[in-house]
Design goal:
Length: about 290
């Protein structure tokens, strides 16, 4: 019985820290480092770089801690929006969630300290803002969406600083990712409208309403054409990955059509998951950079 209870709590902890998301982030960081930030370096050198491995792990621990503290603060809202998710993740008592939150952050800072003073400062600030977002910013108008996306992009900013690669193509990729994540976050607000409204979270959907939120999402999809066109313009740098960016245009237009045609919470959940597919496929399509057109 004790073994079964422990196993269930470990699975609940894995769900709480989004173990699958952490794996995706590590893969995304590695592929970005190999094919975007340091494409001129051999893959063996990047794969075996001890400092880069520490940064990958420090990022994962910091994000895991961020998920735990976010679950802690969002418990009441999740009971309304995602009751099944709440029941699974809260098999781990709050006191243990806070213990693992501290452990994750401590591990992240220890790993960062083994790289450099600048790195530990970077991760200390990152961990602080992950906490500030869950504790305060998540309930604030506009700050919720902006900081959620900024915190999601930060792991790649860490890799950019490490390789000191500030070329325009890097910022074009960042702009594309930022807009996709912002669109996903706004759809997530529509999906979680009921719990956000009950708990007085000042999201775009709660403040402006469903129709205006959809108009903003539609505008962001149009705005996506800017980074997409800039990336496709640099075909010699992204090679066959240009096909992925071309495919995102009809994909996002389809999402907008579905968004306006079927305004239900179940639809918003499907659109949220479709955008996850777009993001993951984008990560995997980084491999196409090595393939010529």
């Amino acid at each position: 019985m004790l073994f079964k209870k422990t196993a269930i709590q470990l699975l609940a902890l894995f769900a709480s820290v989004r173990g699958y998301n952490l794996l995706v982030v590590i893969i995304a960081q590695y592929l970005s480092a190999r094919y975007i930030f340091a494409s001129n370096k051999p893959w063996v050198q990047i794969l075996s770089d001890p400092n880069l491995i520490k940064i990958f792990l420090a990022t994962s621990f910091a994000i895991a801690g961020g998920y735990l503290i976010n679950n802690f603060y969002d418990a009441e809202k999740d009971q309304i929006n995602r009751p099944v998710k709440y029941l699974i993740e809260h098999r781990v008592p709050p006191v243990f969630q806070l213990f693992f939150y501290g452990l994750m952050n401590f591990s992240s800072l220890i790993l960062a300290s083994l790289v450099s003073v600048k790195t530990i400062f970077f991760f200390a600030v990152y961990i602080f803002f992950l906490w500030l977002y869950s504790h305060y910013l998540k309930k604030r108008f506009w700050a919720s969406n902006f900081f959620a996306v900024l915190l999601a992009v930060t792991p790649f900013i860490a890799i950019m600083f490490y390789f000191k690669n500030y070329e325009s193509i890097v910022f074009h990729h960042a702009g594309f990712l930022f807009l996709v994540l912002l669109i996903r976050d706004l759809i997530k607000d529509l999906e979680n409208f009921k719990g956000d409204w009950v708990r007085n979270y000042k999201t775009i959907a709660v403040v402006y309403g469903e129709k205006r939120t959809k108009q903003i999402i539609s505008f962001l999809v149009i705005l996506m054409l800017v980074p997409v066109s800039l990336l496709i313009k640099n075909k010699q740098l992204i090679n066959s990955m240009s096909y992925y960016f071309l495919a995102t245009i009809p994909f996002l237009l389809l999402i907008v059509i579905i968004l306006w045609k079927s305004p239900t919470q179940k639809t918003y959940l499907w659109l949220h998951n479709l955008l996850k597919v777009l993001i993951v496929s984008g990560i995997l399509s980084i491999l196409l950079i090595r393939l010529p057109l």
